[in-house]
Recover the amino acids of this structure.
């Protein structure tokens, strides 16, 4: 199984809603990542987890809250988002950080209204 | 920033021709990866080249790495319509947990 599975595929939420994005992998990878991608732009790194510990937060606003409940799961909790947060949110995993290829999920297309 | 810069930003070629995309970066790296992305969905990993490697092949793909110039190139030979996509390089700096993407090249294969 070389898949990273993200749910949901699409999400529309109001600015007062709380929602969560989910990411799952069963490749035994110990590094997991969240990226945000706007149209016609490259993915921008948000968070990195290494061995279930948050190792990098790229100065992401607190309305985005990551969580790694176990080595296979990564969540991104969303609260009080703004319309400019509308984007494709991509999850990735790699065997460990540094020096290994990363596998990406298909992303969650988020629209904030 | 270690972010890569691809050029060209956009490339249109005839089916069957070769496509070359370049990537430059700023800091020392452990490895450099190339990804393909179709229609704003997930990224597909194409190839990884380590900092001590100079060239790598995978099917119709050829990647080179010149660490002295901090640059890499991706060559797609005998292009097909299905190769139409955006291509990104991504770098993984030494002693850093980040994978940072370049701006990407949008490749369009004309029938």
């Amino acid at each position: 199984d070389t898949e990273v599975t993200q749910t949901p595929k699409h999400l529309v939420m109001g600015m007062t809603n709380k929602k969560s994005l989910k990411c799952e992998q069963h490749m035994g990878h110990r590094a997991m990542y969240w990226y945000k991608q706007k149209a016609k732009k490259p993915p921008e790194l948000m968070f990195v987890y290494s061995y279930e510990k948050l190792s990098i937060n790229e100065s992401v606003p607190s309305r985005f809250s990551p969580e790694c409940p176990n080595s296979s799961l990564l969540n991104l909790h969303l609260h009080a988002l703004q319309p400019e947060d509308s984007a494709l949110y991509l999850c990735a995993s790699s065997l460990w950080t540094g020096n290994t290829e990363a596998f990406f999920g298909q992303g969650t297309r988020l629209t904030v209204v | 920033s270690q972010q890569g810069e691809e050029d060209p930003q956009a490339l249109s070629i005839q089916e069957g021709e070769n496509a070359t995309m370049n990537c430059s970066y700023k800091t020392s790296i452990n490895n450099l990866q190339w990804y393909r992305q179709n229609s704003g969905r997930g990224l597909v990993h194409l190839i990884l080249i380590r900092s001590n490697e100079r060239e790598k092949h995978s099917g119709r793909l050829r990647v080179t790495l010149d660490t002295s110039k901090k640059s890499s190139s991706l060559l797609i030979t005998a292009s097909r319509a299905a190769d139409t996509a955006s291509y990104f390089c991504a770098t993984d700096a030494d002693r850093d947990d980040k994978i940072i993407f370049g701006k990407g090249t949008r490749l369009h294969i004309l029938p």
Remarks:
- Chain B has no helices and eleven strands.
- The interface with chain A takes residues 30-31, 33, 35, 40-45, 48, 50, 88, 90, 92, 95-104, 106 of chain B (CB under 8 Å).
- The first strand of chain B starts at residue 5 and ends at 7.
